[in-house]
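Below is how a single chain appears once it has passed through the pipeline. First comes the sequence as given, then the structure the pipeline wrote out for it. We keep one example in the README because the format questions we get most often are answered faster by looking than by reading.
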Amino acid sequence: MLRTTRVADLTRFGDLAEEKRVILGVPNTGRLLDEVASLTGSIVGEAGGRSLRFDTEDFIVVCARSNDLPYLAANGLADLVITGFDYVVEAGVDLVELHDTGYQRCSIGLLGPAESHDWRRHEEITVATQYPAIAERYFDQPGLPSCELLVVSGAAEFYARTGIVDLIVDAHMTGMTAAANGLSYLETILETSGRIFAKPNWTESPKNIEDVCRMLTR
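Resulting structure:
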């Protein structure tokens, strides 16, 4: 018999279950990791290489995908995580935001070809996105066209550029990729950045979570 468990439903914590030190989750790759390294010095830089765990006297750094980090904190596997606000919203988990680092600040927005500025007048539209939960909540608002979502793992611009979909919901920072693919920024859905989140009920933990957070933000 095959049983599949998603990270969102993880309940097996391994040797971290009895850990007395604070467990800090950080991205294992990407531009946010490079900026997070400035908060923890060489610790994250070393852990963010081939090693996905690094132990210090006061805390443990674990490296995982940015979109998995909210689930690790929500399930108690990490005490603190540094990840994008958009990933927390997409995961739909209840975490406590402690600090906005300002890193990788951008918008999650609606983009499409220049001629799609009147998209609200259509009865039906197709949208590609790697943020299906965010997009679904947005298009579920009254008065918006009926929407069919195409869930992709990246490069959403391709699907609008080739006419496979009408619009995309994607991260928008400099606008260079969108412009290179003939897309215009139509509307902001949410503002996001790299932030420090604590697990639910973190104040009830005997660990020095607040001290580690203070160290990261000083």
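The first helix runs from residue 31 to 40.

See the next section for the split statistics.
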